[in-house]
Amino acid sequence: MRTTVHPIVLIFLVIALPLALARGGSSRAAAPNDAPRDHASVSPPPDLSSLNIRLSARAIRPPAAEVKKVVVLQGIRAARPRVGEPARSVILEDDARQRVVILSMGEHEPDDGSIRAYLLADLDLESRLPSLTACTVQRRCAEDRTPGTGGLGCIAFCLVETVRP
Predict the structure, then answer these.
(1) Region 30-48: what's the mean pLDDT?
(2) From CA 100, how far away is CA 119, in angstroms rounded?
(3) N or C: which end of the chain has fewer CB within 10 A?
(4) What is the sign of the dihedral through the CA atoms of 128, 129, 134 and 136?
């Protein structure tokens, strides 16, 4: 007997539950590592083995000072959901909330459907584009209209798989 998980439950388990657990520790005593960070210091490289995905209904363009590189994902398309507003941006960040990549679409007029990857960390995405494209074709991201897990969310899942060490 095959069991399936409803997409909303999957979204909760992948996105909301880790965020709730991360925020839920406010009653604990402060650990030595909880001291305010000096923003002038160099932050450690992000942990690419465990990236979290956050969806946004509006197109996000990060500040130019934070962007290391912009890559246009040529030939990769995201389906619009059957109901509701589509996700216009996806933020990929590690467990320390250090942003790695922001995928954004529909930020330029006219909306040509192009997807831009704003790289906020040193990441060689160009060499991984063939495997990213193959994953989006295999998962049918251009046709998957399931809210949350289809469209731009589907591309984000492929990107996480592609950059994972």
Answers:
(1) 56
(2) 6
(3) N
(4) positive
Return d(Cα 104, Cα 83) in angstroms, integer. 20
Residue 6 confidence (pLDDT) above 70: no
Whether 149 has a pLDDT exceeding 70, the answer reads: yes
Of 162 and 147, the structure prediction assigns the larger pLDDT to 162
Q: CB neighbours of 113 closer than 8 A, spacing ≥ 6? A: 77, 78, 105, 106
How many helices (DSSP H) and strands (DSSP E) are in the chain?
Answer: 4, 5
**The one-letter amino acid at 29:** A
* DSSP strand pairing (99-105 vs 89-93): antiparallel
Please give the C-alpha separations between residue 164 and each of 125, 128, 132, 137, in angstroms, as whole numbers: 12, 11, 12, 19
